[in-house]
Amino acid sequence: MLQITRVDIVDGQTLDIELSNGHLILFDTRHLPKTNHSYDVLRDLEVLPRPGTDGQNIFWRDGPRIALEEILQWLSIQQ
User: Fold this and answer.
1) Which top-level group of life is the source organism from (predicted)?
2) pTM of the model
3) 15 exposed, middle or buried (CB, 10 Å; 0-12, 13-18, 19+)?
C-alpha cells in the first residue's frame, strides 16, 4: 500500500511529500479546494508550520488533515 514517508514545507506554502515508492509530490497548498472550509486556515497563513504524517494523512496539530487519497485524486483531475 502506498504511504507517505516524509512531508516538509518548501517556500512557506508548498508541501514536499515523499511516498513509499520513491516518488515526490510538490503540492502548493494555495490550490486546496475552496469548498472545504477546514483548509481556509492553511490558505490564510503566510508560512505553514511543519506538518506531521501517519502514512495516510498529512496533519497539523489542532488543524486540518489532508488524506493521501485526496491529494492523488486532485493530481489526477489536474492532468
Assistant:
1) Bacteria
2) 0.87
3) buried
